Amino acid sequence: MQRSYVIKPELGKEYARVSHGKGIYLYDVSGKRYIDGSSGAVTASIGHGIEEIADVMREQALKVSFAYRSHFSSDAVEELGAKLADWAPGELNWSFFVNSGSEATETAQKIAIQYWQEKGRPTKTRMISRWMSYHGITMGALSMSGHVLRRKRFVPLLADYPVISPPYPYRRPEGMSLEDYAMHCAGELETAILRIGPDQIAAFIAEPVIGASGGAVVPPDGYFQRIREICDRYDVLFIADEVMTGIGRTGAKFGVDHWGVKPDLMTLGKGMSAGYTPMAATMATDELIDTITRGSGLIMAGHTYSANPQSAAVSLAVLRYVEAHNLVEKAAVQGAYLQKKLQELADESPIIGEARGLGLLCGLEFVKDKQTKEPFPLSMGVAARVIAKAFESGLLVYPASGGLDGVAGDAIIISPPLTITTEEIDELMDLLKKAVQQVQEEVRQ
Ligand code: PLP
């Protein structure tokens, strides 16, 4: 007998089946409507069912969907590369197209290592990452991910990379100012580089705003500027993982733009094609690509579907849509409104320790005790309960627990499509409030 393709192992029952989507809404086959309050996995950022994207898909499919990247480039790929170079900070003028965020970060890892080889410094092979980070599920990407829960079973297979603390303002040492905390956390990078030796370290990787492993944790101002200085001082490349934060999500084109920082490598995914097709990218500076081109001339990366014209055309159409509808600016404005509403909810709820976010990448962290910030035991699954209650009442939100596996509280991400209106945010908040109230009654009995 055929088994359902997806089964929720923890519930032993099947998922609802999606039927279709329009704007911020998804519908299941029974006709029930859901607000896509997290754009799926922070992905569907222009909303569902947009006809002009469907038109581009059809048009490109009729022209050519697939041509192997070693045989051909295409107008779609070249125009997409040009648009990204135009949007990206600094000298990030080169894009390599892949299919997922994990492939993008793993490609960045390989380019960083290859760059130092071409520079005659082959010992620089290790990456430094941060606890409470997520850079992907494949082994290279997971090696760089400080996501305790996702690493746990595979530790023997992962590269032994150093990991430093992330800035986590909500849980900073008592009495420490945000300015001092920014320097304190960035200082950990310098300490790690000096301990291991700059001749060992190829790159430092970080998400501008911590996503899946923390729930929209925003660093204090000054942190990334300091990180950039330290990377420059010790010849360590800086990889900004913008898979979740890129393409307008935080109210700027890229997360690092909030601090004016220019990475050496940048990874994109999710919002880059807004879920209309699998698409992701690794961007690198002229310096990196010129060095590799002068050397072996061959980037050791690539997949069968890399740079296929179909996905490139869709992604280009998505970026044009974002521009035409001013969605970067809208994310900043609507994000401020959503954050205000989340703060009001946090103020009145005894189980929300912090409401936080940047643009439309927002999070709620649940705690047992608001005074002491003591987390609920993860076994209670408080965030998972809120997600389940919200789902029942027709609201989708995204889990962000397990990054520190019980050391800190669990969290959810609220990240609706960048097209969301104020009335739709109010509707989202009514459902979220109801879900939080139901769970707080359960857990505080
Ligand atoms: N990097 C970041 C910051 C992410 O949030 C994710 C996914 O959540 C990834 C990488 C991995 O992307 P994918 O799931 O497309 O492989």
From TrEMBL:
Signal peptide range? none
Give the top-rank taxon of the lineage listed in the UniProt record for this protein: Bacteria
Q: Name one Pfam family in it.
A: Aminotran_3
Taxonomic source organism: Brevibacillus composti
Question: What NCBIfam families would the database entry show?
Answer: PRK06917.1 (NF005375)
The coiled-coil segments of this chain are: 418-445
One GO term in the molecular function aspect is: pyridoxal phosphate binding
Q: What is this protein called?
A: Aspartate aminotransferase family protein
Q: Which UniProt keywords apply?
A: Aminotransferase, Coiled coil, Pyridoxal phosphate, Transferase
PANTHER family registered for this protein in UniProt: AMINOTRANSFERASE, AMINOTRANSFERASE CLASS-III
Stated family: Belongs to the class-III pyridoxal-phosphate-dependent aminotransferase family.
